[in-house]
């Protein structure tokens, strides 16, 4: 919107069937976080689209980004029904805001029907008004668990417990960073009071060890864990449930930026992120990044970064942005403040290594290609794989439909390849989303 309002020609490409991203999921007027009402933002956006100030292309997947002398070429395909419909878009500046997906960790029984990601459960409720089960446990780590439980409770769901692997009270240690993000703490208070009203137990320092059931989820076993997530003996508890919404934070989608060699960094949550300066500019001139791609930080931060990214895009095109210098200054200060809050949350809800001990040899690590933990470990101990790529070639882990998005961090962790060097080295993917080879061929052969 900043680019369009500043007189630039702007094209918005979104793989979703509606704008709004993960948080708004196409909704018209849900409650907004940062005070900028989403309804107002959406009205302004729709107005610009109607006036042809923005060329909006929905259900369109960007699968490749290339640099050329005057800027970039973005190659796209249609949605799953129109995967062969490919096209290319030339642009002087590209703003990358491809978001993130749930980070999953395997454990015995995690492939049973009824076990799903926290984001999947939230999407079911928010997107389709469908509850994932009759007795639901929400588990993993991070404040997102509270958002998921809140969405389920608000839709009339029976949440049996929220199982948090870390100690949320440690946030007090980071109080200086946490306090200025008053809007966020208000959100947390709203979630916690909804849980208290429904008397939902919030089990701190507990972790899901196993999921059990004949042909679908019937119960889970949880244990109290120490600060490294190793189970404390004698604390096992069985919770009966038919749905488990589980997640351990998010992984940023950085593929398109990786294709043009943008510098990456390791975020404070230990995941990969695109490195940007205080104007959201990447190391590649004209490539700007915003939102979760620059480090997981939540919806308010993503929205503010989007505004600053718009300014940077306008400046790169040699124009003056419609935003005043003081508004830009306020925006960059707010981005820094919210980034500090996100860092405090990541320090409070880190990923600890104790989960690895529960991944027994029979546990599937790559569910697309059905590769077990034993095969992955053997690739290192028996076959001598020295890096993640060799493990992939030897086992097929990461070669399936999700292309390693779910299992790659697990494989790295189980094999001891979860170093910054390995993560950054593995950030190059020539194709960001699955696209038929025939479609690529016809794209390249067309005049
Ligand atoms: C399942 C899920 C639920 C979440 N729920 C919350 C929540 O309740 N509260 C909260 O604060 N945060 C939540 N988050 C974190 C959330 O990502 C951010 O808060 C916020 O949505 C980030 O905005 P974004 O613009 O960076 O990414 P998103 O909102 O994820 O937007 C990215 C957009 O890029 C599109 N896209 C991705 N790849 C491509 C491609 N190759 N081609 C074309 N389009 C593409 C996607 O369709 C999407 O519309 C959630 C994240 C996930 C994954």
Number of helices: 15
CATH superfamily of the largest domain: FAD/NAD(P)-binding domain
Small molecules in complex: flavin-adenine dinucleotide
Give the tally of structural domains. Answer: 3
Kindly report the CATH topology of the largest domain: FAD/NAD(P)-binding domain
What gyration radius follows from the Cα positions, in whole Å? 22 Å
Q: Quote the average pLDDT.
A: 90
- Helix fraction, binned, reads 25-40%
Describe the model.
The protein has helices at residues 2-5, 21-24, 38-50, 118-128, 144-154, 175-178, 182-197, 255-259, 299-316, 325-348, 373-381, 388-395, 408-415, 420-425, 437-445, and strands at residues 10-13, 54-57, 61-68, 71-77, 86-91, 94-96, 100-102, 115-117, 136-140, 159-164, 202-204, 206-212, 219-224, 237-240, 243-247, 250-252, 264-266, 272-274, 287-289, 364-366, 371-372. The two termini are 33 Å apart. It has 447 residues and is α/β, with parallel strands linked by helices. The protein has 15 helices and 21 strands. It folds into three domains: 2-101 and 251-345, FAD/NAD(P)-binding domain (3-Layer(bba) Sandwich), CATH 3.50.50; 104-249, FAD/NAD(P)-binding domain (3-Layer(bba) Sandwich); 359-425, Arc Repressor Mutant, subunit A (Orthogonal Bundle). The strands form eight sheets. The chain has a five-stranded parallel beta sheet. α5 crosses α7 (182-197) and α11 packs across α12. Bound molecules: flavin-adenine dinucleotide. Flavin-adenine dinucleotide is lined by residues 13-16, 21-23, 61-62, 97-102, 119, 122-123, 147, 250, 253, 291-292, 298-299, 302, 432-433.
């Amino acid at each position: 919107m900043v680019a369009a309002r500043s007189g630039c020609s702007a094209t918005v490409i979104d793989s979703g069937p509606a704008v709004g991203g993960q948080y708004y999921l196409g909704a018209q007027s849900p409650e907004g976080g940062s005070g900028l009402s989403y309804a107002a933002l959406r009205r302004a956006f729709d107005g610009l689209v109607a006036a042809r100030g923005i060329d909006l292309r929905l259900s369109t997947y960007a699968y490749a980004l290339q640099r050329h002398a005057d800027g970039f070429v973005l190659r796209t395909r249609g949605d799953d029904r129109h995967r062969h419909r490919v096209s290319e878009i030339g642009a002087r500046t590209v703003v990358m805001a491809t978001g993130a997906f749930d980070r999953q960790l395997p454990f015995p029984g995690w492939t049973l029907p009824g076990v799903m990601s926290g984001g999947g459960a939230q999407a079911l409720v928010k997107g389709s008004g469908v509850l994932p089960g009759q007795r639901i446990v929400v588990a993993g780590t991070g404040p997102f668990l509270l958002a998921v439980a809140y969405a389920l409770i608000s839709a009339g769901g029976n949440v049996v417990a929220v199982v948090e692997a870390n100690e949320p009270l440690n946030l007090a240690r980071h109080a200086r960073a946490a306090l200025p993000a008053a809007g966020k703490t208000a959100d947390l208070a709203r979630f916690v009071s909804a849980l208290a009203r429904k008397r939902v137990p919030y089990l701190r320092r507990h972790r899901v060890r196993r999921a059990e059931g004949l042909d679908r989820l019937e119960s889970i076993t949880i244990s109290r864990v120490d600060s490294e997530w190793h189970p404390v003996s004698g604390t096992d508890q069985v919770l009966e449930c038919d749905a488990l919404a589980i997640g351990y934070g998010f992984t940023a989608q950085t593929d398109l930026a990786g294709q043009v060699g943008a510098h990456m960094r390791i975020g404070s949550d230990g995941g990969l992120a695109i490195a940007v300066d205080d104007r959201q500019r990447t190391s590649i001139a004209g490539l700007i990044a915003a939102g979760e791609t620059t480090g997981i930080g939540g919806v308010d931060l993503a929205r503010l970064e989007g505004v600053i990214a718009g300014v940077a895009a306008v400046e790169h095109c040699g124009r003056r942005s419609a935003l005043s210098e003081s508004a830009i200054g306020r925006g960059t200060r707010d981005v820094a403040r919210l980034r500090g809050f996100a860092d405090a949350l990541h320090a409070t809800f880190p990923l600890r290594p104790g989960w690895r001990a529960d991944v027994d040899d029979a546990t599937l690590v790559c569910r697309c290609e059905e590769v077990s933990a034993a095969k992955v470990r053997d690739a290192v101990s028996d076959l001598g794989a020295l890096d993640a790529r060799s493990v992939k070639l030897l086992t097929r882990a990461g070669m399936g439909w999700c292309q390693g998005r779910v299992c790659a961090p697990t494989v790295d962790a189980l094999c001891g390849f979860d170093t910054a060097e390995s993560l950054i080295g593995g950030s190059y993917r020539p194709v960001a989303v699955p696209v038929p080879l025939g479609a690529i061929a016809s794209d390249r052969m067309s005049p």
